[in-house]
């Protein structure tokens, strides 16, 4: 069985997700932005073995703890897309600008592309490239859970900002409508911030997508 737990972290209340396979007790952290002791306590309390960090994109509130956890736990960093490399290089400036602890530099073990898959224990998740908020933004979709981890692409009642360098509003709308919504109305999702929703709810009622 695949399980998930949302762990809001950092002053931005970013929804880090802990994902684990109860057959193997292997776990992944999606978007560890900060609050490392809290995140690692969630792993240890369940006697899980952290196997990887998966990143949707490289903004500081999503990626700030990545370098330190990868080094101390000896785990690979999977994602985001290579288009986010400039955000990774800018993590020191992002730390300063937003008052975060200095983020440890890292280089992803593997960049992700549209159509890739990631593995956790007996479970496979699909990778969707959804640019617009950042150029290399990816979404992780679990067919087992019928659940997507969408980072800052889509929120309950809102969509991701596109006014940062490299943002593109048309790309974001296209990705939401043609990649995310293709997963189906009954798919639930964890956004980067705020409450969960379903793709159908957002397709029908999100004011930014009418
Ligand atoms: Zn972001």
TrEMBL record:
Entry keyword set: Hydrolase, Metal-binding, Zinc
Gene Ontology molecular function: hydrolase activity; metal ion binding
One Pfam entry name: Lactamase_B
SUPFAM superfamilies, A to Z: Metallo-hydrolase/oxidoreductase
Residue span(s) of domain Metallo-beta-lactamase: 13-193
PANTHER family documented for this protein: HYDROXYACYLGLUTATHIONE HYDROLASE GLOC (PTHR46233:SF3)
The protein's required cofactors: Zn(2+)
Zinc recorded as keyword: yes
UniProt cross-references to CDD domains, sorted A to Z: YcbL-like_MBL-fold
Protein name: MBL fold metallo-hydrolase
